[in-house]
Amino acid sequence: MDTRQLRAFLAVVETGGISAAAEQLGYAQSSVSDQVRTLERDLGVPVLNRTSVGTVPTEAGQRLLPYARRLLDLDGEMRRCVSGQRPLLRIGALQSLADEWLPEVLTAFDHGAGGPDTADVTVTVSSRGRLMEELNDGRLDAVFTLDSGPGYDGPSAVVGYDRVVLVTAPSHPLAAIHPLTLDDVKRSEFLVTEIGCIYRQCFDEFGRDVGPSLKIAMITGSLNALRRLAVNGRGAALLPRFSVQAELDSGDLVMLDLKEGPVRLTVEARWREGLGPAAAPLRALVELTQRFSPASWAMA
Amino acid sequence: MDTRQLRAFLAVVETGGISAAAEQLGYAQSSVSDQVRTLERDLGVPVLNRTSVGTVPTEAGQRLLPYARRLLDLDGEMRRCVSGQRPLLRIGALQSLADEWLPEVLTAFDHGAGGPDTADVTVTVSSRGRLMEELNDGRLDAVFTLDSGPGYDGPSAVVGYDRVVLVTAPSHPLAAIHPLTLDDVKRSEFLVTEIGCIYRQCFDEFGRDVGPSLKIAMITGSLNALRRLAVNGRGAALLPRFSVQAELDSGDLVMLDLKEGPVRLTVEARWREGLGPAAAPLRALVELTQRFSPASWAMA
DNA sequence: CCTCCCTATCGGAGAAGCCGATGGCATGAT
DNA sequence: ATCATGCCATCGGCTTCTCCGATAGGGAGG
Questions:
Q1: pLDDT recorded at residue A202
Q2: Measuring CA to CA, which residue among B207, B209, B178, B176 is closest to residue B190?
Q3: Which residues form the HTH lysR-type domain (chains A, B) (predicted)?
Q4: What's the CA gap between B1 and A280, in Å, rounded?
Q5: Within 10 A of B197 (CB to CB), how many other CB atoms are there?
């Protein structure tokens, strides 16, 4: 059996059709049809239900799916190992962690702080849902997330804790009020990220406590843009402390003096079992992350 | 890449040559040569050092070896699972365990005592060393051994305990002596198994305590033959109690009344990680073995 | 130096892979 | 009802791969 057939099958299932898979793989449609048929002849079982509108894996095809992924994964790992390359560690992270925290960790890791076992690291930035999906599919080896809910039974470790803080520019009216009350906050404008972002979820929790009358100034997908808007006095922003630590230190932003609603964040690492040669570097990386919590990582 | 190439490579390494591998696989010699060359072109690295006397894997080939085995294993597991067959559980055991204990356990397992997850079970009988080798190579999924030494860091569980006992026919002169002393034993003949067998090792330990003057009556590879020789009054035998429990119960053999040197035996299960669908049946089987200790399994 | 055994290479026959084109089939719009 | 659309299977062809038998090279040992 050839791995091409597994790749073809996988592409068909992922794209939902033979034609789409053929285009994705750079084959003619008839070739992919042939490949799947060869695979079915080899296995002795049909793996696809063909319809005129697309293609759906049969029950046997669904059983095949995880094996196909594992085999292709193992094939790639084998090629890396045999050709003497360093193992590949595919990690995923939320944007904020990838922006503000991972770069320093990975720099230290590359400089040998990860121990003698090093690896080539790729970082995929995505939402929490997609990260977990790709981890379960085997497309990622490990993910770093915040406050990840249940539904994962693989190995994991808490990397550190942080909290969500309400920040504004020092010149913002809210910054002058001590102590700040919820009523003051209600009258202000908020900078929030798009729906689905984890900080947006924090905001929504926070907002529910404060009440529905919160004014929303802007919705944006970039934490960095949001932060700069806050620096420019455009409004208050609810952000994890580690992502604005530099601005707090330099005085570009101030933390508002509000007791209510500080949301605690747990930074967690989750990874797959059976990583092969990438297991040792990952272990080193996770230990490194635990030692590498930023100064603001204070909230136990 | 085709699994045929991996099979060819594996056969070459195991047989020590391309010609021998070709014969084993049913190919022409030139075909296997081609297959290995194709594999090397695909991987970009030579995997075999060819000499005029045979073939040895290169460094890259040695790295390839475990991956080739794992890939072929996974391929087989995939075929089983996809075609809807029950998972295959390849277990190995020492001859005594396979003869006297495993049959009842496996019968109960097949009759559903292993829980809802069942599997097709193959049993390989071999020496402890070979069993561990095949377990590490992935040719076996689990092994049952006695007093297995260190050098294994995978998962394991103690199944039960037994002891080595010195037995003779009731008519044997030693059986009439109470209490028995080491001097009495020294003057008797012993039935022992071949070198390398674990009971032979027990005997050697025992013998060292007793002294070098022990007379050895016979060396045989079959525990059953040895047991019958003892029943026929041919001498004393040092055997695990569970393997002679039936003869002790029926009175065909008696346990000698000697305090010194009873060797304790630990029956241990060891298995591989990453068993896939065979993991649940194996867990059930191990739990079953722990509940299934024979009556003689008394020595804690 | 000769023999033996091992492996690489070559040429040819057969099989398999891939492609473009064609046709069947279900769906959804007109 | 009819037509258009998008999907997949099939077919004939070309190319590539696979496998084989035969042959040649090369080191080990007598």
A1: 61
A2: B207
A3: 1-58
A4: 28
A5: 21
Angle in degrees, 0-180, between the axes of helices A59-82 and A3-15, rounded to the nearest 10: 130
What is the CB neighbour count within 10 angstroms for residue B266?
14
Residue B82 has its nearest CB partner, among A63, A81, A273, at A63
Would you say B96 and B83 are in contact if contact means Cβ atoms under 8 Å apart?
A: no
Q: Which two tokens stand for residue B208?
A: 């060292």
**Which pLDDT tens digit goes with each residue over B65-122?**
999 999 998 999 899 888 878 888 899 888 778 877 888 888 888 777 656 667 888 8
Question: Which bases of chain C come closer than 7 Å to a protein CB?
Answer: 5-11, 16-21, 24-27
What are the residues whose beta carbons fall under 8 Å from the beta carbon of B264, sequence distance 6 or more?
Answer: B161, B162, B163, B164, B299
Q: Which residues have CB atoms below 7 Å from chain C, the nucleic strand? A: A 2, 4, 26-31, 34-35, 38, 51-53; B 12, 17-20, 29-30, 33-34, 36-37, 48, 50-55
Helices H / strands E in chain B, number of each: 12, 11
Cβ neighbors of B88 (< 8 A, separation 6 or more) are B76, B77, B80, B119, B120, B121, B122, B278
**pLDDT tens sequence across A243-261:** 888 888 888 998 887 766 5
| Lookup: nucleotide whose C1' is closest to B5 CA | D18
State yes or no: cis peptide before B179, omega within 30 of 0. yes
Residue A17 CA, nucleotide D4 C1', distance (Å): 21
Distance, in Å, from the CA atom of A294 to the CA atom of B32, rounded to the nearest integer, reads 57
Residues of chain B positioned with their CB less than 8 A from the CB of A274: 273-274
Q: Which residues of B touch A84 (CB under 8 A)?
A: 45, 60, 63
The answer to whether B71 faces chain A, any CB pair under 8 Å, is yes
Cβ atoms of residues B244 and B254 within 8 Å: no
Q: How far apart are CA B108 and CA B112, in angstroms?
A: 7
| Other Cβ atoms within 10 Å of B38 Cβ, number | 15
